[in-house]
Amino acid sequence: MSTTIKTALITGGSKGIGYGVAEALIKDGIKVAITSRTQASANEAAAELNKIKEGYAIGIESDVRNLASQEKAVKTILSAWGRLDYVIANAGVGHFAPIQDLTSEQWQETIDINLTGTFNSIKASYEQLKETQGYFITISSLAGTNFFANGGAYNASKFGVVGFTQAIMMDLRKDGIKATTIMPGSVATYFNGHSPSAKDAWKIQPEDIGQIVSDLIKMPARTLPSKIEVRPTMPA
């Protein structure tokens, strides 16, 4: 390995939860590669992150729906830093509508990004995480165990992420790889076209999820919190 500094891949890391996780990991001395579907947005976010610690962030254009794209992202990290220790599968999308109005395109995009994207993320990084005895963390949602009206596509994808992560946890730990799913409630992000404002002060903040990821990585090797539910202390 070309560096002893640990590294992380964060999908959908140009804003919101992914960006908050990237900030936390850089402050912990971990180099981060953030992905976005456009190189411009990935580069812009990486430039801001490098203000925390110069040379600790790179931006990569990648689409989690495509396994080859994820494999290319991993190769880019290895070319830059020579190792991969942590993968945070964060990229997500939400379409909310009753089944009568939910289109097949909306269904497919939700499943492809939220669920298949998670599958592609571990398939692309498995060999490297096995080598470094690393950590695979998925960002699911409380919608992964709590169904609601208009949530057919989103619930299906997030229930799937929770089940998938818990199942592969049983597989991966045999290779020394930890796996955890984090299930946040309301988070102040740009998700689904929302623009965070002062009205979101009651919500979980992206940096709060970043702290959880940071704490997970610091847990003793013998201990694995495999599923974490996170809620605002006092909902509006």
UniProtKB/TrEMBL annotation:
Annotated Pfam families: adh_short (PF00106)
Gene Ontology BP terms: monocarboxylic acid metabolic process
What InterPro entries does the entry give? KR_dom, NAD(P)-bd_dom_sf, Sc_DH/Rdtase_CS, SDR, SDR_fam
Q: Which residues form the Ketoreductase domain?
A: 6-188
SMART domains registered for this protein in UniProt: PKS_KR
Q: Which NCBIfam families match?
A: PRK07326.1 (NF005594)
Protein name according to UniProt: NADP-dependent 3-hydroxy acid dehydrogenase YdfG
Q: What is the source species? A: Arcicella aurantiaca
